[in-house]
């Protein structure tokens, strides 16, 4: 394993955390009223939301929460690949479901990187297992004697290292960052640069988000509010879920 200077990691984080914030802003540009109104209207009503502004803000937060997790997960994946490229000559994998590949101690490692432990449902877990098996099989075709070890690397969490029955190791939190870097405290060292200009970036993001909330609120009022200003819930539910066609089908 080659040694990586912590300054290199901080420089990478400082530069690429800007991309994370920019992608958050870009995600707002793709928003439309139709898109955010796909969320559960019954849940909104159950929360006793009665103003258009509050409704739009709630829907927008739900949308951004899910997209932000994906965007930041991509950032952490790229950081892990960068570190492994410096310490183990690793590279981004072209295999389906595999993010990182490298050789170390005569072993070919296949690494799938996830942000947190609650990363998917049972079907997605089975898909990962199949992706590992497929990648191992393809590599074995050219070298039957090669040692290949799949790894599920999870960026944060406290679960202890575990060998899964489907043939891969699960490395979580500190253990994962140490595995790719050889630096025991790296999981702590990266927290400071991740906050690089965080206040400035979030002020810009919140300013842009406020404009989106105002625009969508205006559009919502025009389409889904009664003359007295109240929300027309039946109209909203019809827009979200109205699709009656059973009169045309013989079940």
In short, what is this structure?
By secondary structure, the chain is α/β, with parallel strands linked by helices. The protein has helices at residues 6-29, 33-36, 41-46, 52-87, 122-140, 174-181, 186-189, 191-194, 198-224, 233-241, and strands at residues 91-92, 100-104, 107-114, 147-154, 162-163, 169-172.
What does this entry look like structurally?
This protein is an alpha/beta fold. The protein has one domain (6-240). The chain contains 10 helices and 6 strands. It has helices at residues 6-29, 33-36, 41-46, 52-87, 122-140, 174-181, 186-189, 191-194, 198-224, 233-241; strands spanning 91-92, 100-104, 107-114, 147-154, 162-163, 169-172. The protein has a 6-stranded mixed beta sheet with strand order 1-2-3-4-6-5, sandwiched between helices. Strand 1 (91-92) and strand 2 (100-104) form a beta hairpin. Helix 1 packs antiparallel against helix 4 (52-87) and helix 4 packs antiparallel against helix 9. It is globular. The termini are far apart. 20% of the residues are buried.
Head-to-tail CA distance between termini: 64 Å
Shape: globular
**Structural domains: how many:** 1
Question: DSSP helix count?
Answer: 10
Tally of DSSP β-strands: 6
Q: Looking across the biggest beta sheet, what order are the strands in?
A: 1-2-3-4-6-5
What Rg, in angstroms, do the CA atoms define? 23 Å
Indicate the mean pLDDT: 92
Structural class: alpha/beta
DSSP helix fraction: 55-70%
Low-confidence runs: none
How much strand? 5-15%
Helix-strand topology string = HHHHEEEHEEEHHHHH
Largest sheet: 6 strands, mixed
């Amino acid at each position: 394993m080659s040694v990586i200077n912590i300054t290199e990691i901080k420089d990478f984080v400082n530069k690429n955390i800007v991309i994370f914030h920019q992608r958050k802003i870009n995600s707002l540009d793709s928003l439309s009223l139709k898109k955010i109104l796909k969320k559960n209207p019954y849940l909104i009503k159950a929360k006793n939301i009665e103003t258009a502004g509050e409704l739009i803000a709630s829907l927008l937060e739900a949308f951004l929460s899910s997209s932000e997790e994906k965007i930041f997960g991509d950032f952490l994946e790229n950081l892990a690949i960068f570190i492994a490229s410096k310490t183990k000559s690793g590279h981004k994998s072209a295999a389906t479901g595999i993010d990182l590949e490298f050789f170390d101690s005569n072993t070919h490692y296949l690494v799938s990187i996830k942000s947190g432990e609650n990363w998917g449902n049972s079907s997605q877990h089975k898909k990962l297992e199949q992706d590992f098996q497929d990648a191992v099989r393809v590599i074995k075709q050219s070298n039957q004697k090669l040692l290949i070890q799949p790894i599920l690397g999870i960026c944060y969490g406290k679960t202890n290292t575990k060998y899964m029955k489907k043939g891969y190791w699960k490395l979580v939190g500190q253990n994962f960052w140490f595995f790719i870097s050889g630096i025991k405290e790296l999981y702590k060292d990266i927290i400071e640069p991740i906050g690089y200009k965080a206040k400035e970036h979030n002020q810009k993001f919140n300013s842009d988000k406020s404009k989106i909330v105002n625009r969508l609120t205006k559009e919502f009022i025009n389409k889904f509010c009664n003359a007295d200003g109240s929300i027309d819930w039946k109209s909203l539910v019809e827009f979200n879920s109205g699709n009656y066609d059973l009169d045309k089908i013989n079940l």
